[in-house]
């Protein structure tokens, strides 16, 4: 018995990396899976039917059910076809996981409009395309649904990725909108800040250090370690399951063997006057009212330092042998019972 027996899923970008791990685990948990992957290079060029076909073969050889689709998520009509392909093959579509992604990193002052648009098209328009087509199905069937989409810590200030950061922040915005709009149809929507040493990580400057020290790329060193992209998949399978029916409108982090919950955006300080304030007054009052929390970005764009954060919040508590937890003292969410 799998947690997802009787369910069907569409996973985009499932031919490699994080998406491959998700598609394989959803199938292992009993879901029938449409494996979508354009087979593009890291910057989105070209196409190859190989990655999707390989993952379909891996799933069927392991006893699961999967079919391939090699369309681009950026193509509105093709994504409608993709969703219909899943519905006609499996009879319905319960789970959509948006993973397809590309990179065209450049400083904002050097970025071409084409580099901007290509990244927005795959990550953000791609998510709109799948969400729109699937939500029409979910609104008709009233059988519920799951929308799970890969955002990134780059949404919070990665300097060399203005296109990618904007697209990934947009993924969070679209997730929150869908959570608010589709809850009445039993649909949940959540975003993930994933990590995993895939070819995407092989492309960043720090990867050169790994090659210099070991002769291997980060993706080759990652198998079976906290950096393995497969570590994201259990969180996705949980969110896709009936056990997570009440979990919606959240942003989760998946960092190695650690999972984290982001706070909801909230006002943290305010000042108020009984009359309009002048600019001169704001020059004086703003630093007094909001100073201390305006120094700069708190989140490291390559992934937060969970150890440092834990230390700030009272340290890790061992809640089961080998399982550790900390919660922010700033969040009034009550004590957890383990
Ligand atoms: N690896 C990380 O640490 C990390 C961190 C934050 C966010 N992410 C996000 O997670 C997702 C997966 O990343 P990954 O590291 O596994 O990358 P990856 O390059 O290994 O896999 C991405 C897959 O998407 C496919 N793809 C690209 N464009 C497509 C399109 N238009 N239509 C359909 N498929 C397309 C590619 O062919 C590829 O197989 C991406 O959205 C990425 O932005 C990854």
Structure description:
There is one protein chain. With 338 residues, the protein is α/β, with parallel strands linked by helices. It has one domain (8-261): 3-Layer(aba) Sandwich (Rossmann fold). Helices cover 39% and strands 14% of the residues. The protein has helices at 17-28, 50-61, 76-90, 113-141, 162-182, 199-202, 207-214, 218-221, 233-240, 279-290, 306-312; strands spanning 8-11, 32-36, 65-69, 95-98, 145-150, 187-193, 250-255, 258-261, 317-320, 323-325. The strands form two sheets. The protein has an eight-stranded mixed sheet with strand order 3-2-1-4-5-6-7-8, sandwiched between helices. Strands 9-10 form a two-stranded antiparallel sheet. Helix 4 (113-141) links the parallel strand 4 and strand 5. Helix 1 (17-28) packs across helix 9 (233-240), helix 3 packs parallel to helix 4 and helix 4 (113-141) runs parallel beside helix 5. The chain starts with 7 loop residues before the first strand and ends in a 13-residue tail after the last strand. The mean pLDDT is 93. Nicotinamide-adenine-dinucleotide (NAD) binds next to helix 1 and helix 6.
- Globally, the shape reads globular
Percent of residues in helices comes to: 25-40%
Report how far apart the termini are.
26 Å
Q: pLDDT under 50 segments (min length 5)?
A: none
> What count of structural domains?
1
State the total count of DSSP E strands. Answer: 10
- Helical region count? 11
Q: List ligands, each type once.
A: nicotinamide-adenine-dinucleotide
Structural class: alpha/beta
CATH class call: Alpha Beta
CATH architecture: 3-Layer(aba) Sandwich
For the biggest sheet, the summary is: 8 strands, mixed
Strand order of the largest sheet: 3-2-1-4-5-6-7-8
Mean pLDDT: 93
Q: Kindly report the CATH topology.
A: Rossmann fold
């Amino acid at each position: 018995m799998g947690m997802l027996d009787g369910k069907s899923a569409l996973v985009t970008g499932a031919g490699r990396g994080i998406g491959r791990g998700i598609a394989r685990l959803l199938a292992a948990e009993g879901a029938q899976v449409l494996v979508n992957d354009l087979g593009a290079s890291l910057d989105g060029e070209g196409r190859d039917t190989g990655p999707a076909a390989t993952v379909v073969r891996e799933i069927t050889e392991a006893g699961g059910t999967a079919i391939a689709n090699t369309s681009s998520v950026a193509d509105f009509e093709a994504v409608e076809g993709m969703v219909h392909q899943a519905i006609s093959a499996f009879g319905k579509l319960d789970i959509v996981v948006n993973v397809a992604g590309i990179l065209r990193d450049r400083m904002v002052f050097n970025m071409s409009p084409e580099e901007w648009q290509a990244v927005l098209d795959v990550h953000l328009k791609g998510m709109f395309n799948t969400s729109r087509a699937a939500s029409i199905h979910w609104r008709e069937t009233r059988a519920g649904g799951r929308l799970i989409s890969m955002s990134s810590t780059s949404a919070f200030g990665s300097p060399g990725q203005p296109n990618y950061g904007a697209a990934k922040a947009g993924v969070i915005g679209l997730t929150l909108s869908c959570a608010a709009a589709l809850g009445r149809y039993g649909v949940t929507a959540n975003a993930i800040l994933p990590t995993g040493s895939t070819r995407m990580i092989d492309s960043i400057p720090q990867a050169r250090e790994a090659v210099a020290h070991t002769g291997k790329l980060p993706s080759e060193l990652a198998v079976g370690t906290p950096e393995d992209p497969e570590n994201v998949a259990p969180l996705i399978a949980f969110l896709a399951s009936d056990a997570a029916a009440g979990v919606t409108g959240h942003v989760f982090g998946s960092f190695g063997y650690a999972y984290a919950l982001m706070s909801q955006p909230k006002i943290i300080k305010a000042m108020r006057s009984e009359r309009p304030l002048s600019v001169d007054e704001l020059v004086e009052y703003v630093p007094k009212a909001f100073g201390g929390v305006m120094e700069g970005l708190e989140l490291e764009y390559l992934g937060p330092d969970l150890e440092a954060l834990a230390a700030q919040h009272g340290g890790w508590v061992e809640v089961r042998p080998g399982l550790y937890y900390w919660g922010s003292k700033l969040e009034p969410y009550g004590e957890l019972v383990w």
